[in-house]
């Protein structure tokens, strides 16, 4: 393949570099015992940054490169675990900000993608370890409900349906916090890298002004 100009060369280099960086972050998240929360936050940022700097085609190529790298290094299951939700979420947020969509739009679909990705991860990991991990999640949900019932001294006994609904609610709430934090992090960090994302809604912008 013949490189025609400087921009094409930079696009190839940035795609390879940022895809490799994101792959290294995923490997670190999987194997390092500390820093997991921070790594989860910054994991989507390289592909998002690539999308903002080089467009949708380069971001899609970077995502494919990253998937194959992880497929080779860590195996098919862990490669898929990166795509759902981190890779798909990163591509979605990058596309929204590249096309200047509103935070509300990117946040709602991002939370939906993150929640679906969580269930795919539970299914894949359950297959990998040979145990139904959803049982562990429902036990955690029951533990929270039981503590609330004891704290308020309520004469209630939660049904399995209530326990399952609370578990789903907790997953969705976790994804709301996660995706919103990525928005805030990108909004504060990317201008320093000469890339910008759309301004947040007025309410969030007021909170950011107070924070920063």
Short description:
With 212 residues, the chain is an all-alpha fold.
What report would you give on this structure?
This protein is mainly α and 212 residues long. 81% of the residues lie in helices and 0% in strands. The protein contains nine helices and no strands. The protein has helices spanning 6-31, 36-42, 45-54, 56-74, 76-98, 103-129, 134-152, 160-189, 202-211. Helix 5 runs antiparallel to helix 6 (103-129). The protein is globular and about 75 Å long. The protein starts with 5 loop residues before the first helix and ends with a helix. The model has no long low-confidence stretch (mean pLDDT 86).
Which key phrases capture this entry?
single chain; 212 residues; mainly alpha; Arp2/3 complex 21 kDa subunit ARPC3; 9 helices
State the shape.
globular
Structural class: mainly alpha
Q: Could you describe the largest sheet, including whether it forms a barrel?
A: none
Task: State Rg.
Answer: 20 Å
Helix tally? 9
**Span between termini:** 47 Å
* CATH topology category name: Arp2/3 complex 21 kDa subunit ARPC3
Q: Which strand-content bin applies to the residues?
A: under 5%
Helix proportion of residues, in percent? over 70%
As residue ranges, the low-confidence spans are none
